[in-house]
Structure formats: structure tokens, C-alpha cells
User: Fold this.
Amino acid sequence: MSGDTIFGKIIRREIPATIVYEDDLCLAFRDIVPQAPTHILVIPKQPIPSLADVTAEDKAVLGHILITIKQIADQEGLTEKGYRVVTNIGEEGGQTVFHLHFHLMGGRGMHWPPG
Assistant:
């Protein structure tokens, strides 16, 4: 159910991670190479390779993940000053793990363009 990527291994507890949230649909953990003081990855437990691969059947899990990101941002104290949520799609989009994931970053000013 959780794929054969590093994220699938984290879901199955084959690789350790600092988990900040988990439920039946998603998992959130701290990035091991943070790009901001707070950098959390939020992933669906079902293996969806990227946002380019979602279908109408994924609506419930995607909505749930977005609400979860907001709750984690509140819990981490990011809401007042703001935060960034990013997902990379494909190689040219910067995606390196082909399991859909959202980066929640905050705790410093974010600049544009990002890269």
C-alpha cells in the first residue's frame, strides 16, 4: 500500500523519521535537510507518484492533506507570520522522490522566485 520509495519505507517504519502527525490517510515528518527553521513533509499513505498522477478519486485524501497542513502550521506557530506549501512535480519541477509530498516551510521570510 505504501510504495517502494523512501517515503514508503518511512510509512512502514523501515526508516526512522521525526513524525509530527499521523492518521489513517497521511503522515507528516520533519525534513532531514531543512530549507527553513520549520520544514515538514506531509505525504499521503497511499502511493501517488506526483500531483500529475492524481485523479478525481484522490479528492478526499488531497483535501484531508491540505486541512492537515493548516493544522500542523497552527501547531508549529507558523500561522501568524505565514508559511509556504510546495509540491514539486517531475524532474524539471525538482521532484526527487516519486511519492506525492508537500513541503510545509516557515519560520523565516520566504523569497520569490524560489529557484
